[in-house]
What we know:
By secondary structure, the chain is α/β, with parallel strands linked by helices. It has nine helices and five strands, in the order H-H-H-H-E-H-E-H-E-H-E-H-E-H.
Amino acid sequence: MAIIQEISEYLQKGRAKNVKALVQQALDEGMDPKQILNEGLLDGMMIIGGKFKRNEIFVPEVLVAARALNAGLNILEPKLVEVGNEPVGRAVVGTVRGDLHDIGKNLVVMMLKGAGFEICDMGVDVAPEAFIDKAEEIHADVICMSALLTTTMTNMEDVITELKNRNLRDKYIVMVGGAPVNDSFAQQIGADYYTPDAATAAEVAKKAVLEKAE
Ligand code: B1M
């Protein structure tokens, strides 16, 4: 079996140690880190997502698969972030209030680091005030929010409302993303950018910061 498929299958079984070893082996064999990420780790997680949706598996199985995914990501991270070097700006990144999903957010953190950003990773279940307080504290350029639930994506708007209340809206580039989020939702809540994936988020953040500085 091809190593990339093995990574996906061990991830689905929640075998973190095997995933970790196979990701390392794939890197040692010279495989592209992005291919390992997309075709091995994320492919495996998509299959888990489908089974979860169809009630074929439940939260514990999803959690062990997520742990295996994170084990693989830890090995990949240095390779994914070594792409960029020049610091281009600072970003505060977090998953919005009420939402505990952090895998996509962690990818956004990695890709932004790779694009040369200094990052403050706020974790999950982040209150609107906390995003803004931290952005002010570290003199951030960008606020990045992730949401995976239709019930929590609406909390992204609270951050924008709070920015407006504090007369800070124009100070920050606000970016949103996550499975249920799309461009029209981003426009509706007044975010600056929606991007469908972490790599695009990093590209767009870099471009936006450079444009704002001109
Ligand atoms: Co949750 N969950 N979950 N879950 N879970 C989903 C999201 C769900 C779609 C599953 C399903 O039913 N098919 C569903 C949401 C339904 C909905 O809202 N319409 C769901 C549900 C219902 C729930 C619970 C309510 C289940 C329960 O308790 N009964 C519960 C909620 C807990 C809470 O948050 N309060 C719950 C819990 C969990 C676990 C804890 C078990 C686990 C999370 C573990 C963790 O994150 N550490 C989990 C998981 C793993 C999933 C699925 C299976 C996978 C999510 C994931 O990590 N995908 C998910 C099904 C699915 O999405 N197919 C599901 C991989 C990740 C890389 O993708 O985060 O989308 P994603 O990130 C992408 C892009 O979206 C983008 O970049 C990444 C790609 O590069 N992106 C951004 C993300 N953020 C971005 C920000 C940006 C730009 C791009 O700019 C700032």
